[in-house]
Amino acid sequence: MRDLPLDEYRKKSQKSLISEQERSNSQLIYEALFAQLLSNGYGNINLQQLSKLTGISRTTLYRRWSSIDALIVDAIADKIQDEIAIPTDLEPVESLKVMLQQLAEFLQSPLGRAFLQAALAIKDEVTERKREALWQVRYQQIRQAFVRLLPTGKAHHDIDAIVKMTLGSIYFQIFIQNQQVDDAYIESILNHSMTLIQSK
């Protein structure tokens, strides 16, 4: 590998430091946002308030996020990545089971409920499109986990309906029925989904 000229090396090092600082700032801001969502609710948070709490200038915050809604969408994406993983090193059924357990646990947590309320309250058109794009990417990842249950080379024309039914069952149980979703419930709906997948 060739040696970098000194100026180029300095530029690369500086970019790396800036990038690391941005990641650190983002995590600090996300944690402050989570705390405020839990204590004050979506309607009582703004970027100016988060600037005071974190010591990060408003200019820096507004350079990164145009609104509190834009920040919330990024924070949700980051949290989902951490809290609701889709393991690829497990058997397909076990991978899906782990993901559904994590999803249920997150949705039943105070922060998960606060996030969902905030996400549904977003009115800004640009941020709303960003939120929809996030959901779509996440949905495709979950869909792929279901596709892995199919025999090799076999398609299933109802796979989207099965994915939505499985996820919808969890949301319905938590937010409409106001009932806990435990491992037994996850096992039950997953078995039902498997039966539907294998019936075609």
UniProtKB/TrEMBL annotation:
Alphabetically, the GO molecular function entries are:
DNA binding
Q: Which residues bind DNA?
A: 46-65
Transcription regulation listed as a keyword: yes
- Give the species this sequence originates from: Acinetobacter marinus
Q: Identify the taxonomic lineage of the organism of origin.
A: Bacteria, Pseudomonadati, Pseudomonadota, Gammaproteobacteria, Moraxellales
Q: Which SUPFAM superfamilies match?
A: Homeodomain-like, Tetracyclin repressor-like, C-terminal domain
Name this polypeptide is given: Transcriptional regulator, TetR family
Give the keywords, sorted: DNA-binding, Transcription, Transcription regulation
HTH tetR-type domain segment(s): 23-83
PROSITE patterns in the record, alphabetically?
A: HTH_TETR_2 (PS50977)
Question: Which Pfam families does its entry note?
Answer: TetR_C_11 (PF16859)
